[in-house]
Design goal:
Elements: H1 18-38, H2 57-85, H3 90-120, H4 127-134, E1 139-141, E2 144-146, H5 153-187, H6 192-209, H7 222-240, H8 243-272, H9 281-308, H10 317-342, H11 349-371
Antiparallel strand pairs: 1-2
Protein name: Acyltransferase 3 domain-containing protein
InterPro entries: Acyl_transf_3_dom, Glucan_succinyl_AcylTrfase
Transmembrane segments: 21-40, 52-74, 95-116, 151-170, 193-213, 225-245, 257-276, 288-308, 320-341, 353-371
Length: 403
């Protein structure tokens, strides 16, 4: 394990970065816990337990601003590693690894969640009737909007960003990579990596705040795209620009301080205007700017931790990294179904949480452990097709297809 507070030598771009694997594993594990906690929080979600704990608001408010930007940054990093490994196959491999699980999830997993959603509003039919006759509609049905990505919106966004980038690289890859490298080199100077991205992202977010609705949707979430695309491209640039690691080491402490201050603002706004309460426009603008600053500061701090503390291998690293995508695909419907069927039991909060956590972990583990052994099922849950294992020294591409 490395303990240098500032790297004395930047990692080679051809080397696998184990720290980024561990960061990805931790980020998706935290995402599963976050979604379980949503069922117990006062915030609106797919399904609620019989509990709404106000004390969950501060910790969850501190997670919300950076958990998704972090995933897009890590995904961009992994995308560059995959591109460097096989430039000519980048678009095809990304399409297969992202679009096939997305289609599978939309046809098999999302219907389970949508059935629960309409059942909450009094839908009278069973699941098979719903899937065969009612799921494949468009518009409002029993108070719910169809079709819906549900949690797979992340895969849809990531596929869109990756394939658009692949198109640009296919047209003039050399010029594009040089431009990305030039921008990355410019950011390494002084404190630019700290303040320039925050300023640019905040301006973009505030410019769209009262113009475009803050709603998920590939063709309508302009505020989200304005945040996620640059952060995705930063991850892509980082994997090909080793000097950015030195800049991260120089800026992570003020980045962490910025994240802490911004987090205090986010929590204060959330506690003052809880739930569906709408704060004044100037407060909303301050909140969105604080969320942007917190996200960027946390990315710098967590990337530094991944580089200096976590950049070492372990026998569990590879299977855990491979299991990330299958876990992500199935965890959401697992939480929703377990919560739905446990509602009549009126369990205590600790038992309810234990059931959701244990049940979701069991479903995720079973999906991965069984699915990885079945050749035709592997691509559907986001795993590579079975192939001869490579020598560890030659391992340069991520084990998981989602990032």
């Amino acid at each position: 394990m490395r303990h240098d507070p500032v790297p004395v030598a930047a990692p080679r771009t051809s080397q696998r970065h184990y720290g980024m694997d561990w960061l990805r594993i931790a980020a998706f594990g935290l995402l599963i816990l976050y979604h379980i906690a949503m069922a117990f929080s006062p915030w609106d979600w797919v399904i609620k337990t019989g509990y709404a704990f106000q004390w969950l608001i501060p910790p969850m408010a501190l997670l919300t601003p950076w958990r998704l930007p972090l995933l897009f940054a890590v995904s961009g990093y992994a995308s560059r590693k995959l591109y460097d490994r096989a430039p000519g196959d980048f678009a095809r491999s990304r399409a297969l690894r992202l679009l096939i699980p997305l289609a599978f999830g939309m046809a098999v997993l999302v219907p389970l969640e949508m059935w629960v959603r309409v059942m909450e509003n009094g839908y009278p039919h069973g699941y098979l009737h719903f899937w065969a006759l009612d799921y494949w509609r468009s518009g409002i049905f029993w108070g719910r909007e169809f079709p819906s990505w549900e949690h797979l919106w992340f895969v849809a966004y990531l596929a869109a960003y990756t394939l658009l980038l692949a198109l640009v690289l296919a047209r003039d890859g050399g010029r594009t990579l040089r431009a990305i490298g030039t921008a990355a080199e410019w950011l390494t100077q002084g404190r630019r990596l700290l303040w320039v991205p925050v300023a640019a992202l905040a301006v973009a977010r505030l410019a769209l705040l009262f113009v475009a609705p803050e709603r998920q949707g590939l063709l309508r979430d302009w505020g989200g795209h304005a945040q996620y695309v640059p952060i995705f491209l930063f991850g892509f640039a980082l994997a090909g620009s080793p000097r950015l690691w030195t800049a991260i080491a120089r800026n992570w402490k003020p980045g962490a301080a910025m994240a802490a201050l911004a987090g205090a603002v986010v929590v204060a706004v959330e506690l003052t205007w809880p739930g569906a309460s709408v704060p004044p426009h100037e407060v909303m603008a301050l909140d969105r700017a604080a969320r942007t600053a917190m996200a960027w500061g946390m990315i710098l701090a967590l990337f530094h931790i991944a580089e200096t503390r976590w950049n070492h291998d372990h026998r569990l690293r590879r299977p855990l990294a491979e299991a990330v995508f299958p876990f992500y695909i199935v965890h959401h419907p697992a939480i929703v179904l377990i919560a739905w069927y446990s509602l009549p039991l009126h369990l205590s909060a600790p038992l309810d949480f234990a059931l959701l956590l244990g049940g979701t972990a069991s479903v995720c583990a079973a999906t991965y452990l069984i699915g990885r052994r079945i050749g035709w099922l592997r691509p559907l849950i986001g795993l590579n097709r079975l192939a001869k294992p490579e020598h560890p020294a030659r391992e340069t591409a991520p084990a998981s297809g989602v990032v």
